[in-house]
Amino acid sequence: MTTTSGDRAAQLAEAGLDGQNRTALGRVLGTGSIGYAEEGPDGKMTATVRIPEDELCWEPGTLILPHGGDLELTLINDDKNTHCAVLPNNGDPKIIWLVNHAKGTASLNLDGPGTYYYGSTTGNDEGRGLTGAIVIGGEVPDEAKLDRPPQPRP
Amino acid sequence: MTDYVDAGAAIPHQQLSAVKGSAPATGNVDYERIQGARSEPQNWLTYYGTYDGQRYSDLDQVNKDNVKRLSPAWVFQAGATGMQSGASTYSFEASPIVVEGVMYVSGPDGRCWALDAVTGEELWRYKHASPYDVSLCCGNVNRGVAVGHGKVYMATLNAHVVALDATTGEKVWDTTVGDVRAGESRTVAPLIVKDMVVVGSSGGEFGTRGCLDALDAQTGERRWRSYMIPKPGEPGSETWPDDGEAWQRGGANCWVTPTYDPELELLYQGTGNPAPDFDGAVRPGDNLYTDSIVAIDVNTGQIRWHYQCTPHDLWDYDSTMENLLFDAPDGRKLLAHADKNGYFFVLDRTNGELVRVFPFVDRITWGEITPEGKVTPKVYPDEEGVPVHFWPGPAGGKEWTHMAYSRQTGLIYVPVQEVGATATRRRREFKESIPYWGAGVAVDLEDFYGYVAAIDPVSGEEKWRWRNEYPMCASTLVTAGGLVFQGTPTGEFVALDAETGEKLWQFQCGSGHHSSPSTYSVDGRQYFAVPTGWGGWIEGFLPGLLGAAAGDALFVFALPQD
Known about the structure:
The complex is a heterodimer of chains A (154) and B (562).
Chain A: H1 8-15, E1 34-36, E2 38-39, E3 45-51, E4 62-65, E5 69-77, E6 83-87, E7 94-98, E8 102-110, E9 114-119, H2 125-128, E10 131-136
Parallel strand pairs in A: 1-4, 3-5, 4-10
Antiparallel strand pairs in A: 2-3, 5-8, 6-7, 9-10
Chain B: E1 5-9, E2 11-12, H1 31-35, E3 56-57, E4 71-77, E5 97-99, E6 102-106, E7 111-116, E8 122-127, E9 146-148, E10 151-155, E11 160-165, E12 171-176, E13 191-193, E14 196-200, E15 211-216, E16 222-227, E17 259-261, E18 266-270, E19 292-297, E20 303-308, E21 324-327, E22 333-338, E23 343-348, E24 354-359, E25 367-369, E26 375-377, E27 387-390, E28 404-405, E29 412-418, E30 421-425, E31 439-443, E32 449-455, E33 462-468, E34 477-479, E35 483-487, E36 492-497, E37 503-508, E38 518-522, E39 525-531, H2 538-541, E40 553-558
Parallel strand pairs in B: 3-34
Antiparallel strand pairs in B: 4-40, 5-6, 6-7, 7-8, 9-10, 10-11, 11-12, 13-14, 14-15, 15-16, 17-18, 18-19, 19-20, 21-22, 22-23, 23-24, 25-26, 27-30, 28-29, 29-32, 30-31, 32-33, 34-35, 35-36, 36-37, 38-39, 39-40
């Protein structure tokens, strides 16, 4: 077995893992770009994710939030096919139907820290690449932490 | 290009389902009512049915004569959408709560439902979004909810406790009680006591510091926290190294619901293994209060007494399993505890004094406990890289799944696992959120079996056993109909004669059992609610069935309506 190191995007492109029906049938999950939500003065966050034409993926593929809380997410379908999104949300997941060339929003509430996945739950969009990640950073409130000195982390 | 089509705003997923959205308001469930739960056997008001943990019901419509006619009344399928944490380890482990014809039950992945207990209709649902990457030692599981004060209380995988409106499922409050970056989670069924909700910690394989919390039932504010590992200078700290950091990550989590004596106002909490599980050289001493039965003052959170079942544990022998409260014929207030280490303990629950200890499994090689309670380790991982085989394995002779006490026969029915394991000590440094076992562990893939043992807790005598090819990995339930119910790992839900152990009935549910069934009645008809779904820590308690069919269905049985 040989392995490569270096630029991740170039490697994925070279291996044919960053698009549809190249080496793999679909686009390998987790291969998209990374984006960051914007935080307003009230702590609420906003971000946009997009489905590019014929790529069956979310861009950015990984959306990073600085902390848990409320996220106003705009979803745009620039593809020439119909998709949807089922999104994590405290209380109940949210669903939005995204016909070709459609734009909508989702109001989400999520705890941090942690990683949540969402996807287009039609056909096997999820397996072809339309599975995105929302990664929430930060720490839990101090009062929720264990009473002990700081511990080493990986 | 034209303007985008307006897709509008995303809507709740359940809006595209037949979920009704509301449940009937029931009579208020409060502390007084839960104390008297035995007087209303038509309901299953709290995790064990009653505070004493007996898992006994006075309902007797289904009995030895007619149990062969028991049939499914309805089935609820939990299902799942999208990617979830522990995607291969989910299991339906709950004990359904029933109040006046409304069932409240939790499932894997932060889900909770209110169901019509007669028809199975989904009245409302709640899903707490659970991070995909949360640390879970033992699967994507939840053991149930507490219902009271007009609310449903549930712990979440990411260490929150939420209170939901019992009629709508809407969130009333949400308190973060643990640190997911430290490997903490919550899987336990909360317990309502007075105006508080008691919730214990999970994370025993990640080097946390185990604790029990009492939250204000109305606001979620913490009333007290009781750590199960003392700090330097506190009572019990002498059982940890003086100059070390071991206590800071010593374990002793409280991942099974405590029992409670309202007269003594004591919670009886079983505590988990020390960390690292198998490498004792980094934590010399008895390591209190790991592997212990701990009596806690419910008003203050202070530890009144403790009894340690496995001092300086080297086998992952949590003592988290229930402490069943019963009174001896002479009136003495006792407590029964069947430990992972294969020994059955009977204590005086007023002071923790040992009354009796005896083995309840066939094979014990790790060590010996004398009738006086003297513990002598014999076989344990000691030398680096040297495999050591021992019985019972780390899931124990009995895991967290619960035994039941019949108030008719005076017997305790214990689900027994006969499975060994091999541990090879491999020292590792501690890092938050990374498993902290100190060994490589392989549980036996062969030479296992199980049984339900009917044990007289007063004499220690085993009256009968119902033997099964596979270990017993689900809770027993006993009724005034003279029946003991037990789910098997291969999917059968079985009814046994409580006096003889004879199998009288079974139904194949299609996936293994790892839950705590409950029973209730509505309009005079008795039902049995049985969550099924093989999952959780299978590699620990029965890896020989790691390839068995998964599932997440709730079966409800009743006699046919003629």
